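Section handout 9: paired folding examples.
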Amino acid sequence: MPQNHLYILTGASRGMGLAMAQQLLRSGNTLVCIARSANPDLAAEARAAGVTIEQWQQDLSQGEQAAHKLQAWLQAQGPQAFASATLINNAGVIPPIAPLSASDAADLAHALRVGLEAPMQLTAAFLGATNAWTVPRKVLNISSGLGRRAMASQAAYCAAKAGMDHFTRCVALDEALKPHGAKVCSLAPGVIDTDMQVQLRGADPAAFPDRQNFANLKTGGQLTSPADAATRVLAWLARADFGANPVADVREA
């Protein structure tokens, strides 16, 4: 029985994604990172830890390409290669902050492709390629409270995360019918001090009525660091009841 655990992680070059990747650099893990750019520091840390890592440079607005590559790679590994396999769909983008009526069609398409289309395509590829594997399999989709709560000037991001939540519910029903079905969860990670928060705090107040609320989170010390958020998310992933609720929040008990 292999002792190596596979983790496939999108958006691993910065923010919470990078923090998760760093925390997964443990003996016995193989890590495949998918992002627009490779992180040389992450590669160096992996060498020092003796951990196998691959960094695939891929624009996830072209999710079909990433999905085909992932499917072919998994099929080449075979069902006996790993003790478990986990896909973490973490990548997402906020388009220029504006009411939908003032939004550019290309910006909307890009946000939905990265935030919803690519996670669906990668999940389909992952589950399809590993369908005959009998080892534990998990899909963790990094969602947001904004997928469950509407906000002005955030239509694309809110829609992508709401769609992520709901497709996860559907996949959970699919996998529950299989003898070795994957466990899936769309998890809101809390409010994290990342580049997205900088973008929200720096928005034009006339275009973004909630701007001051996000500024207050920063000045009030209410933002979680990427490292702490990654720790909480990975702890949730390791829970024995992971997937019992296909839509969850790390702030829940």
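Moving on to protein 2 of 2.
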Amino acid sequence: MACFSYSSGTFPVALELAGARIVLNQDGSVQLQIGATDTGQGSDTVFGQMVAEVLGLPMDMVHVLSTQDTDISPFDTGCYASRQTYVSGMAVEKAALEVKEKILGFAASMTDIPVDRIDLLDQKIVYKHSGESVLTLEQVAMQSYYDRVLAKPITSDTSNNARINAVPFGVTFAEVEVDIKTGKIKVLEIYNVHDSGTIVNPQMAEGQVQGGVSMGIGYALSEQLLFDEITGKPLNNNLLDYKLPTIMDTPEIGVAFVETYEPTGPYGVKSLGEPPVITPAPAIRNAVLDATGVAFNRLPMNPQRVFEGFKKAGLI
């Protein structure tokens, strides 16, 4: 096994600023524009979920404009350090709450009902005490655009400076089979368990972990970028000679979450971007040590290096 702790962004080492822009459309749907870039990890979906949660909308009513452009997008410091759900999520939540406050304020002006007596739920303005519907969100949205006196589109354009951090924890358990004569290591079972706070989207979170563990297995057993010592030219900069694990090399990956609530993060989240890749390699290394008594402190543990290590230890 091997354990880790990590971070949710780079504070206090570096700035963690993120922006979000939300516009309420005439039909009661919203546009969400963020500077944070979805590189495949699913941040657009999670940000859409956050907005839908605050504004009482179904996901198909939240239109995420995922074309980041530094000329027009809200500012965001970047996609790095497992920060986006935690850091950029703070800005998204902040913008959504501001839009909700403005919606309720406009609804109160339309109905003369005190704002502290109404709420926004399931695309409706409702009485807090009874849940009785007062107006639809679409009615409020249309009026905010076309009221001859009070017209003022409901928007939020905000940023958040996250001067705080949260620490995710986790562990990998691995069982391996080692062929002493050939130096071949086979991963029989591997389990990756995380405390990443509240899991916003379980299916995407599990996929993130499976991808990270697969990367960790390659890091442990086969991946190594080689260079010509004279010219500096890379010798294996292609997918034939750079040995990424294929599906045939990847065991079934066990994924589990110990859910906690992180009070500093939006909806209790902590990071889950890079943590899945941290401990598979040391867990596999520790399993090899347990099986053979030989400690390997350089990666990858490919057959050549393992064979030489066993020979030096007297096993061969």
